[in-house]
Design goal:
The chain has about 270 residues and is an alpha/beta fold. The chain contains 10 helices and 12 strands. The protein has helices spanning about 15-20, 30-40, 85-95, 100-105, 125-135, 145-160, 165, 180-185, 210-220, 225-235; strands at about 5, 45, 60-65, 65-75, 75-80, 115-120, 140, 170, 190-195, 240-245, 255-260, 265-270. Bound molecules: S-adenosylmethionine (SAM). It is an enzyme of class 2 (transferase).
């Protein structure tokens, strides 16, 4: 998946037929500037009219302030955008309860203490948002470039709505497997949070086409055990792993304790 193409926002349609229509780049300065800037930064091609979407190629469209990704999967072109401040995600985030959130217990929040968290598998940024809402500083790593770009765009929109919260969320396009003891110490990380993909999620959450596309972009996270081993070696005080109920422990490491939530569980490891 090395080829990423930008299309103008006029081309931001949802079906293959519509995508093949003539679609000149929008005559809109903000939109054009944003597309040109991203295309330059990430070495992408700008496609502005009369193209056919190719299976497994990723297309982006920017319609200020939304970045959308289009991917053809099984003959259907689907659009993917990330919400943080908007929709259900924003609604839930606005109602975060400082005392009742399960994640607050898992990461070790206390009445006058908020840990600095490193979310090593940022994804759609939803868990990071909840932790930032709880008052934590969160460093977020996402290694998939398309997912990173969508998340960065969602964070930009979050900044308009909740600037104080977005100021606590620091996203980097980086592979967390590279993180070591020195980095953890230098960035003053108290807790590492891991939520790698889990194949069995296919049956439940991944039924939606958007979630299938997310999985194509992120892959299976087959190296999650290695990430866990590296994380424990980094000497961080606490590691929290989000797992589906009934799943094995990452790297077969038994946690110090488990917190069971409605749909998943948290494995908590304390590093002494
Ligand atoms: C299940 S999703 C995380 C969902 C996230 N907790 C949320 O609330 O939206 C897993 C994400 O972690 C990313 N990921 C997996 N291993 C990684 C690594 N070693 N470094 C950076 N990102 C990683 C994947 O690309 C994927 O986007």
């Amino acid at each position: 998946m090395n080829n990423l193409y930008f299309i103008g926002y006029e081309a931001a349609q949802q079906t293959s037929e519509q995508l093949t229509e003539k679609s000149p780049l929008a005559n809109n300065e903000i939109v054009n500037n944003k597309i040109v800037q991203l295309a330059k930064q990430f070495d992408m091609t700008i496609v502005d009219s009369g193209f056919k979407p190719v299976a497994n190629q990723i297309y982006f469209a920017y319609s200020h302030p939304w970045l959308s990704l289009y991917l053809e999967l099984n003959g259907r072109v689907t659009r993917l955008q990330f919400d943080l401040a908007e929709g259900e995600v924003g609604f839930r985030a606005a109602r975060v309860s400082k005392s009742n959130e399960v994640v607050a217990k898992a990461i070790g929040c206390k009445p006058h203490y908020r840990p600095k968290v490193f979310d090593a598998t940022a994804g759609m940024g939803r868990d990071s948002l909840i932790m930032a809402m709880l008052g934590c500083e969160v460093i977020m790593h996402e290694r998939s470039l398309p997912i990173y770009l969508l998340l960065e765009n969602a964070l930009n929109r979050l900044q308009q709505k909740w600037p104080d919260i977005s100021a606590c969320m620091h996203l980097e396009n980086y592979d967390s497997l590279q993180v070591n003891e020195h980095w953890i110490r230098e960035r003053k990380v108290d807790v590492v949070y891991l939520d790698p993909m889990f194949p069995e999620r296919k049956k439940s959450a991944l039924v939606k086409q958007e979630m299938r596309i997310f999985k194509v972009l992120a892959g299976e996270d087959a190296d999650a055990d290695q990430l866990m081993i590296n994380t424990l070696k980094s000497g961080v005080k606490r590691v929290v792993v989000k797992r589906p109920k009934g799943a094995e422990h990452l790297a077969s490491k038994k946690p110090n304790h488990e917190i069971i939530a409605k749909k998943f569980r948290y494995d908590v490891y304390l590093n002494h």
